[in-house]
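Morning. Coffee machine broken again, so started the prediction first thing and wrote up yesterday's gels while waiting. Chain of 296 residues, entered below exactly as on the submission form.
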Amino acid sequence: MPSSSILIINSFLHDKNKQGLHTILNSIIKEYTYKFGTAADIPNYDIIYSPSQVINASLYPHKKFIFGPHFSVFPNHQQLHALQSHKYNNSIYIQPSEWAAQSWKNMGAEQFIPIKCFAFPVDTNKFAPSKSLQHRPKDGVLIYYKHRSPSEFKQLVEFLSQQNITNYRIFSYSQRYSENEYLSYLQQCQYGIVLDAHESQGFAIEEALSCNVPLLVWNAQTMNQELNSQYQPIPCTSIPYWDSRCGEYFHHISELPRAFQTFQSKIAAEQYSPREYILDNLTTEKCAERFIELIQ
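Came back before lunch.
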């Protein structure tokens, strides 16, 4: 058996997470070997990552297991109990951001398994400002809309109309769109406006920031703000990765005019640097460092 070998159980893994994991593992390939396989391969590896499949870790007490984040949005105690990690201290469960990890802790998940925070990397090479367009004035506004009330979306569009802003393009998660179209518009638009529900990581938002697009975000505060929500009012956010370099956010429609005014003035003064934030926090190199901490 290789001394530092990683098995990734080939069950469901979000495409962006899978791409990010590939880049991480390729960046540390000199120290670790890895394979995408099945539970049948477990005896041949000493570190096992299973994003969505329950495995009884007590059967392999000398191996290390990483689970998640795809078992469920919030803890399913039957699944967690099956991990048996409270008897065998060889497992952790990952969530992509601090608020999501804390929500699991608040629900008592750590009586079954330790909860750790681990973000997957953003493809900062692909999602970058266009060199060919760098001397061309940016124009247009991106609107990113995902899992929030149509009435809120209507309020947002009406506000833009009042500001005589009509040169926007809507990217709706429910209606799908091509990644290349999204990237192309990010590279030419002046700024973005986001109406989103909870995000455990929020790749589309992070990709916009990576293209150096400042954002104005109507930020969610609880899980029951999601369209057709069946959730309790669990605290959440639309922007788990964010600081003042990224733009502005607000929580209530009454706050929109002031937030928009601040946003516009700071854009004019070139006070935002969203790509810098992403490069400081969510590159392959940064995420690989944190992944190594998880598996050591």
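The chain has a mean pLDDT of 93. Going to sketch it on the whiteboard this afternoon.
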